Amino acid sequence: MNLKQLAHMLALSQTTVSRALNGYPEVNEETRRRVMDAAKRHGYRPNPSARRLATGKTGMIGYVLPTGASVDIDPHFVEFLSGLGDYARSHELDLVLSPADADDQETTYRRIVANRQVDAVYISSPRPADRRVALVNTLGIPFIVHGRSEGFDFDYPFTDIDNEGAFHEASRLLIQLGHRRLALINGDDRETFAIHRERGVRRALAASGLALGERHVCSVVMTEENGYRATKRLLEAGDAPTAIVCSSLIMALGVVRAVRDLGLTIPGDVSLIAHDDVFPWLRPENFSVPLSTTRSSIRLAGARVAERLAARISGLEEGVRGEVWPVDLVVRGSVAGAPA
Amino acid sequence: MNLKQLAHMLALSQTTVSRALNGYPEVNEETRRRVMDAAKRHGYRPNPSARRLATGKTGMIGYVLPTGASVDIDPHFVEFLSGLGDYARSHELDLVLSPADADDQETTYRRIVANRQVDAVYISSPRPADRRVALVNTLGIPFIVHGRSEGFDFDYPFTDIDNEGAFHEASRLLIQLGHRRLALINGDDRETFAIHRERGVRRALAASGLALGERHVCSVVMTEENGYRATKRLLEAGDAPTAIVCSSLIMALGVVRAVRDLGLTIPGDVSLIAHDDVFPWLRPENFSVPLSTTRSSIRLAGARVAERLAARISGLEEGVRGEVWPVDLVVRGSVAGAPA
DNA sequence: CAAGAAAGCCAAAGCGCTTTGGAAGACTCT
DNA sequence: AGAGTCTTCCAAAGCGCTTTGGCTTTCTTG
C-alpha cells in the first residue's frame, strides 16, 4: 500500500494525502480525518527510503563504533545504550552503529555525513582537542558529545558529569579522615574524564598542602587485572598509600583482590573509593566490604543524550550549551580513618 | 557529485556509468576503467538513499533491542558487538539497533521488515518456540539466530555453542573427582542456553546414577548479587553441594564472595566451574583462586553471525544449516577432589 | 454585486539511482 | 555481399515520497 494507491482509493491527489498525513495546514480538517482514517485502516506506512530520498531525513542517529581485534568496547556502553534506546524507542528513532577502524574513524564520519545516513551523531569518550569533535563540528551535522573535550576555539554541545568535582570530594573526604598518602588508579589519561579526575584529586590534596606522589597515580585500561596490578605495585612500594581512589568498579574488584592478597584489609589498612557508573550486574554495596563510590548513572546520561539529539534534529535545541551533572558521593564501609 | 554530473562530464549516459561502477559485463573494459578512474578522482559515492529506493538494498543489518526501565542489556553484548562490528566494518555493513518495548518486539520486527530498513536481522538469547524466530521466518527476511530455539516444525539457520556438552563435561569432571552433590547456578531458565546447560549437568549425573537435587538448581538473572545469594542459600542448607557449576563469570564473583563469607574455601570445601564468554576486562585466571571454566568466545560468535548474515544477504548461503561450536573446558585451581 | 482574499485541492517536477528495452556499429559466417 | 550475432552504449521508465506553483471554489468586503 503506497501513497499513490491510497490517494487513488480516496479519490484525492497524492499531494493532498501527503499533506494531510504530515499535518500541513492547507487541508480541510474533514478531509484530513478521512485520510488519517483510511491510512490507519489500511495500515499505510510511508516508505522510509522514499521519504529519505525526498527529505533527507532518516529518523536515525549515528554512532561510529571503533573496532579492531585489539579494541575492546567499554562495558559501560550497554548501560549507555539502555538509556539511549529507552528514549529513542518512544520517539521512533533508530540507532545506527557504523563500525570503523579505531585508527581511522574520520573516514567513517565523513561517509555517514556525506551519505546523509543519519540525522545526528553522538561522540563518546572524547579526548582533549578530539579530532572527531572538530570534524563533526565542521561537517555541520547535529551532534552531542558525551563527556568533554578541551582546547578548541569553538564551543560545542555536550553532556558530561562533574568528574573533577566528584574526585575532589572523594579525596577531600579521605584527607579529612587523616589520610596523607592518596593514590589514584585512573583510566586512560589521554581521555578527558581521566584528566579531570586527576585534577580533582590534586586540587583536594593541594588544598591541604599535600601532593599526589608521582608513583601514586597510574593510568591504565580499566580491567580487573589492571586494578589488581596497580594496587599490588602501589602497596608493595616504600611509601604505600593509605587510601586509593579508583576510576571504575571493575578495577575496584582487582584492588580488593590485591589488598586481600597482601594480607591487608579494607578499610583497616587501605581506604577505597571508586567511581560507579551504576551497573545492574555489579553493585558497590555488594562488595565484600561495601564500597564507597562517586555515583552517576550512565544510563540516564544515555537517555539525556538521546533527548538532546532529538531536540537538535527537530530544531528545538540550538546553540552550544554544555551541561555538567553533579555526582553523588556515597559513603559505605570501605573508608575509615588513616591507620596510625 | 551525483551520477548525472559524473555521466555528463564523461560524456556517457547514466546507464553506462552505473553499470561500469556496479561491475556489469556489458561495458567495455576500457570504458569501465575511465569511469572508475573518474569516480575515484572526484570522490563520487552513490547516494545510498537513492540506491535503496531503487534496489531495496540497504547495506545494513538489524537488531531489535529490547529496552525499558527494568530491562538490562546483557553486558556480553559489547563483546558480541565487537566481533560483529569487526566483520561488518570490512564489508561496509552498518548495524541498526531498533529499540523496542521488551514486551512487544513483534511490532518492531514487522516495521523494519515492512519498511525494508535492513537487509537481514539476527536474533539473540532465543527461548524455546521463540516467537521472534517464527515471526522472522514467516516475514521472509534473511536472518541468523545466535543461540537456539526449539520445538518448531521448521528449521532455521543458527550459530550456537554446545552448552549441553560443555556443562556435561564440567559436571563429569567434578563427578570423577568424587563430588556427589553438584549444584547449578544458572541463568534465566526460560532461555534455551540455560535449559541446555541444565540438561548437560543432569545427563552427567545420571550417567553415574546421581541426580540434581531439587534445591540444587537455581535460575536467576546473572548478576554478582544473585550469584552470592544463590551460593549462600545452597551452602547454608542441609545437604550443601561440594561443587558448583555456574553460568557466568559475573555470577561467579558472587559465588566466590559467598564462599569466603561463610568461612569456606575454594577448592577445599567447594569446587567451582563457571562459563566464560571471554571478557577482556574480567578474566577467570585472575580470580583469587584461578577459576576453571567452560570457555567460548562470544566475540568470535559475533563475527561469525555477521559473516553468515552477509553471506545470506548476497545469496551465498542458503538453506537452514545450524552450526554448533564446541566449548573448551579449561581446568584451573578452583576444582579439586571432593572433601572427605 | 464585483473584486480581492483565502481555503482547498491538484498536476507535475524533482530526489539520485537501477534497470528495461532498444539501437547502432562492429564482427562473423556463408 | 547480405544476414545474423555480439558488443557497447543510450533514453526513458520506474522506485515512493515531498514540494512547488497554480488552479478552482468559496468566503469576505466595500
UniProtKB/TrEMBL annotation, chains A, B:
It holds the Pfam family Peripla_BP_1. SMART domains: HTH_LACI. It comes from the Bacteria. This is Transcriptional regulator. Keywords: DNA-binding, Transcription, Transcription regulation. It comes from Mesorhizobium kowhaii. Residues 1-55 form the HTH lacI-type domain. PROSITE patterns: HTH_LACI_2. GO terms for molecular function: DNA-binding transcription factor activity; transcription cis-regulatory region binding. PANTHER family: HTH-TYPE TRANSCRIPTIONAL REGULATOR GALS (PTHR30146:SF109), LACI-RELATED TRANSCRIPTIONAL REPRESSOR (PTHR30146).
